[in-house]
Amino acid sequence: MTSVQSARFDSTERRSELRDLVSAFRELCGSGRGHLEVNLPDSLYPYLTLSFLDDHAVVHLFTSEDSVSLLVGDGSVSPEGEVDVPVMDELGIFTGDFVMRVDRAWDVIENFVRARTVEGLGEWYEL
Q1: Is residue 99 a contact partner of residue 84, using CB atoms and an 8 Å limit?
Q2: pLDDT digits over 69-112, tens only?
Q3: Which residues contact 90 (CB under 8 A, 6 or more apart)?
Q4: Pairing of β 67-71 and β 90-95
Q5: Cis bond leading into 86, ω under 30°?
């Protein structure tokens, strides 16, 4: 997760309860930008990443070392539009096809943690 103090991605893996993740994400939202990665206990895959800048976000799904997908956006940015969001410590450029509002992206993360599956989270586009 991006550190609020340094504004740099901290790759240290931490285990936490959902309430602690919610609290950390809210703090991160206060900075207006960030990147976080979430997986389930005792499992490397699947895991999700949420990258956001201001109110725009992108969600990646990793199902194996060789498989990554993007969650299809919510229409908040036109398909031909482009948005920059931090992916780890670099800015990534994404078309509106894969951009959503931060609250929608957070709902996806929260539902993943609660349901322990990526089924039903939305439409994925495999890269």
Answers
A1: no
A2: 999 999 999 999 999 999 999 999 999 999 999 999 999 999 99
A3: none
A4: unpaired
A5: no
pTM of the model: 0.94
* Total residues found in the chain within this entry: 127
Q: Which of 39, 33, 38 is nearest to 92 (CA)?
A: 33
Q: How far apart are CA 58 and CA 102, in angstroms?
A: 8
- Label residues 6-23 b or e (16+ Cβ within 10 Å = b): eeebeeeeeeeeeeebee
Half-sphere exposure of 30 (CA within 13 A, CB side): 9
Token pair of 121, please?
């989270």
SS3 assignment, position 121 = coil
Q: Per residue in 24-44, pLDDT tens?
A: 999 999 999 999 999 998 889
